[in-house]
Amino acid sequence: MTVALEKPEKSGTAAPVAPVRSPRTVGRRPLLIAAILVLWLALFALLRGKQTLSLAAADLTDLHRWFNDVNDSIGANRDTNPLFLYFFNEIRLVIDTLVTFVRELISQPSDARPLPQIGWLGVVGIAGYVSWAFGNWRVALLAVAGFTFFGLQGLWQESMDTLALTLSSVLVALLFAIPLGVWAGLSDRFHRIMTPFLDFMQTMPTFVYLAPLTLFFLIGGASATIATVIYAAPPAIRITAHAIRSVPETTVEAAESLGATRRQALVKVLLPMSKRTVVMGVNQSIMAALAMVTIAALIDAPGLGKTVVQALQSLDVGTAFNAGLSIVVMAIVLDRVTTAASVRAESARRSQSRLAAWRRPLLGAGAAVTAVLVYLSHTFVWAAEFPGEGGPGSSVASAADSATTWVQDHLSGVTNAFRDVLTNGLLNPFQSLLTDSPWWLVGVVLIALGAVLGGLRAGITTAVCVGLLVGTGMWSDAMTTLASTVFATVLVMLLGVVFGVWMGRSTLVDRVLRPTLDAAQVMPPFVYLVPFLALFGATRFTAIVAAVVYAAPVAIKIIADGVRNVPAATVEAATSAGCDTWQIITKVQLPMARSALTLATNQGLIYVLSMVVVGGLVGAGALGYDVVAGFSQGQLYGKGLAAGLAIVLLGVMFDRITQAAARRSSA
Amino acid sequence: MARQAKHWRTAAVGVAVLGLTLTACGGAKVGDSSSGSGGGADGSGKCGTFNLAVNPWVGYEADAAVVAYVAENDLHCKVTKKDLKEEIAWQGFGTGEVDAVLENWGHDDLKKKYITGQKTAVEAGPTGNKGIIGWYVPPWLAKAHPDITDWNNLNKYAANFKTSESGGKGQLLDGDPSYVTNDEALVKNLKLDFKVVYAGSETALIQAYRKAEKNKEWVIGYFYEPQWFLSEVPLVKVNLPAYKTGCDADAEKIACDYPVYTLDKIVSAKFAKSGSPAYDLVKKFNWTNDDQNVVAKYIAVDKMTPEAAAKKWVEANRAKVDAWIK
Q1: Does A6 have pLDDT greater than 50?
Q2: Which of A71, A172, A373, B68 is most exposed by smallest CB count within 10 Å?
Q3: Which has the closest alpha carbon to A605: A557, A548, A661, A532?
Q4: Which residues form the ABC-type glycine betaine transport system substrate-binding domain (chain B) (predicted)?
Q5: Beta-carbon neighbour count of residue A345 at 10 Å?
Q6: CB-based contacts of B152, cutoff 8 Å, min separation 6
Q7: Are the CB atoms for A80 and A650 separated by under 8 Å?
Q8: pLDDT single digits (tens) A485-499
Q9: A385 contacts on B by Cβ (under 8 Å)
Q10: Average per-residue pLDDT in chain A?
């Protein structure tokens, strides 16, 4: 469930120039690719089924056994090892104290009190006040409405547990992320060293490190927080570094010529100027943390995720949807509030004169009201415990239930036929081409494609990745996963182009579709697995559909932005030259948004890959299943870890090829 | 300007009014005995905190709900339930984070690692539940083709079980990776024209059976009892070659049915020595598959909370419960 970050340096700045090239250079690359593919097909026909490196579900390699042994010896020595006693246990203690403190504040009864320190009225008051103070009155209203909605859903305590966990993880993540990000922003070398680690942290499936985390940090709040921190820190680091880097050099030089020291330049110039972007990093961290809520529930993280996971066990779609909806609402509220906060400084400057004079007394009055609300919710039961039984929540649940039942009953015939046609016609042949070819043949083809599409360096990266993939012992499963991933990405791009162009051309469509896309990205996939299982069965196709739902919104948004950024003058010129709408789209807007298209492919692929593990839960098998199995069974732990590494390697390979291709196409 | 001033005045008045009226008319205060919430804190005598692992299937949840209910209401323990997968729950024995696992299915590997190896866990006797693992078909299929319940006839029907996932063979659907399964070896050694396809989760497996019964589709797969879903769709077990002691000794050569598992309880070594009344409860806890299915049905089908389900069952079966806490 990565919320991998778009790489802004590469996309936005290089404005796509209309492709003016000699016909020969344009023609050569597709020709080469076609030649590679034809050669592959020919050799596949000859060598089919030989040297495929397949491994049965219960078989292990030496590497997998070695991982197991390491894992076991850590578990056996954790009470005597000084590293544990003086390092990990200390970290655990600090984080546990933090989480417990925040939870006792808003969600859990502490020892002496049967209810948390601040009740619902106080929390709603604080949420409204803080949103208003850092954002504006519109997001404050949204925050109040959103938080009240949690109570109406009958999920107040669960929501507060989730909020507590999110806030503590983001706090801890930022503690590390901002200094590291600043450093990476100042030093090119550190930036280069950091990038692969960040890639790793974002693509490694969470399931792989959940079990080891409980080994290091025990079961409960601390482990859940640390798992979330690992996942939520990279976007903040990246965006902070990006923010520091995009401060114009001339400004820094000017400061230095006035005699500012490096330190002064950092504190007085760089940090204030990048503040706005850094807040966007906080925003991304929060979104990533919320994406972890359901996964962390598997190691007893409290909150809404638990409700979702438990409902999944008894296939209770309504209840899962209910809790999922609360997660979506929380994400939207936090997103809008932090976004408003990031533009606050500027909009305040613009409307300075009128409001500024009254801002201070108003802030004071707001603080007073909030204090009263907090006091009330601390003291009186009616303000502490959300009243009512969550009636609206249960009607939401039953509506979701009957909607899914209707869809399942009426559509499953159509969907099954659709699935069979696509699976048998396209997916199966493609997969057997990948899995039944000898491994070295597929390896050579991948390296050649990498080199042709992305250049020599991308070719070398691909070669290293292919070598390591073979080393993990998961080659065959990796190829099965690769087939589904490529297939899903093609579907994502189809949707991306259709809806992206539509949204890019019409503001109205954009305004209607955007909230839906936001919701699809934040809704935990566990919620829609049950209806998808009913529609498509326990198959690879179900996993593909789930991945498309998760990845398509990103692609659509990026392409929409690309299309919108095509200069209006160009479109007008084409219109006056007599082009019809279809021609404008295919001859002008899409070609000029080419770098947005490659970026969308890149992000689409990475988002699809981050769903591989979820796919393993609904019949996709291969790497996703291996990772889940490693989390469930001790003797498969090492294999699960290897499968996780294989997913990371696929991600790195894809990312480097598509990025290099993007640079080439925009050069 | 004037409008802003008005705002601010309204706000100030608002604060005052809110503050005065609300504190004056008040209402029940947090922590008042009359407020009704909490309460468990007073009675907790010598039991203290009881950390109970809850593994992710509804049958286990039923066990946990009943034991937790009895521990809280009869023994006045403070019960902390922890939702964990088996592997992680057993890890918790050593670190003191988990006191008891109530429904262990075989798991000789974990027993070897934690009971004989690290010595952080000990056995606490059977739960009384019999675990039956095997291959099941939906009831409509068993009715339409009664001979399908004999494994010898499976190849005859293999073509009907074909799916887009099974590569031209019949599909045998397996579930969650934490299940104990010999299915790949069985298919090979019984020379069946089937391919094992991993659904990856219990949810996926149940959904497949539910849909198969509703739409009269051909599905055969792994399943187990006791399980709440059987009260919704009574799946029919296929007879594999009968189990004899030792026929599953060599994992590669298994060609017989699964043994009947005696489900048992595992507790942490510390908890067993602690003298906590909760330990005695766990040790004596014993009920039948039917008992568990009733509670599991309350939770999964009737959508009761685990506490409410446990209360209902305990009140109807007071005699059984009294035997556990005597």
Answers
A1: no
A2: A71
A3: A548
A4: 51-315
A5: 13
A6: none
A7: no
A8: 999 999 999 999 999
A9: 37
A10: 83
Window 18-37 of B: residues touching A by CB (8 A cutoff) are 18-19, 22-23, 26-32, 35, 37
* Residue B169: DSSP 8-state: S
What are the chain B neighbours of A379 within 8 Å (beta carbons)?
29-30
Q: How far is B205 from chain A (nearest CA, A)?
A: 7
- Alpha helices by DSSP H, listed for chain B, are 2-25, 40-43, 58-73, 86-95, 108-110, 139-144, 154-157, 183-189, 202-215, 229-232, 269-273, 277-284, 289-300, 306-316, 318-325
Amino acid at site B259: P
The pair of structure tokens assigned to A550 is: 């998760």
Q: Which residues of A578-615 are buried (b: 16+ CB within 10 A; e: fewer)?
A: ebeeeebbeebbbebbbbbbbbbbbbbbbbbbbbbbbb
- The CA distance from A367 to A109, in Å, is 25
- CA of A148, closest CA in chain B: separation in Å? 19
Given phi > 0 = left and psi -120 to 50 = alpha, else beta, which region is B201?
beta
8 A C-beta contact, residue A481 and residue A647: yes
pLDDT category, B18, cuts 50, 70, 90?
low
d(CA A144, CA A333): 9
Supply the pTM of this predicted model: 0.84
| CA–CA distances in Å: residue B207 to residues A75, B97, B162 | 37, 34, 18
Q: Which helix (DSSP H) or strand (DSSP E) does residue B128 occupy?
A: strand B121-137
Q: Which two tokens stand for residue B61?
A: 């949840």
- d(CA A156, CA A149) in angstroms, rounded, equals 9
The per-residue pLDDT for A20 is 44
In the predicted model, is pLDDT for residue A14 greater than 70? no
Determine the average pLDDT of the residues in B122-137. 91
Minimal Cβ distance to B18: which of A218, A369, A538: A369
Q: What is the pLDDT of residue B249?
A: 82
Residue with tokens 């196709």: A541
Q: CB–CB of B86/A214 below 8 Å?
A: no
| SS3 label, residue A666 | helix
Whether residue B88 and residue A314 make contact (CB cut-off 8 A), yes or no, is no
Given this model, what pLDDT does residue A492 score?
94
Model confidence band, residue B1 (pLDDT cutoffs 50, 70, 90):
very low
- Which of A75-89, A229-243, A391-405, B136-150 reaches the highest mean pLDDT? B136-150
Q: Give the pLDDT confidence of A333-361 residue by residue, as tens digits.
A: 998 898 888 877 666 656 655 666 777 78
- Shortest Cα distance from B146 to chain A (angstroms)? 25
The H or E element that residue A241 is part of is helix A221-245
pLDDT, tens digit, 9 for 90 and up, residues A448-487? 998 888 888 889 999 999 999 988 888 889 999 999 999 9
**CB nearest to B29's CB, from A310, A381, A616:** A381
Are A237 and A184 contacting, i.e. CB atoms less than 8 angstroms apart?
Answer: yes
pLDDT digit string, tens, across residues A635-658: 888 888 899 999 999 988 988 888
pLDDT at A105 over 50: yes
Extract long-range pairs of B299-302: CB within 8 Å, 24+ residues apart.
B299/A314, B299/B58, B299/B61, B299/B62, B299/B65, B299/B228, B300/A313, B300/A314, B300/A316, B300/B58, B300/B228, B300/B229, B301/A314, B301/B228, B301/B231, B301/B232
Q: How far apart are CA A554 and CA A23, in angstroms?
A: 33
Closest of A397, A385, A257 to residue A324, by C-alpha: A397
> What pLDDT was estimated at residue B37?
38
Work out the average pLDDT over A381-386. 78
Is the Cβ–Cβ distance between B127 and B286 less than 8 Å? yes
CA B251 vs CA B116, B182, B223: distances in Å: 22, 7, 20
Give me the helices (H) in A455-506, please. Answer: 456-472, 475-505
Nearest CA to B265 out of B18, B64, B8 is that of: B64
Interface of B with A in 283-302 (CB under 8 A): 299-301
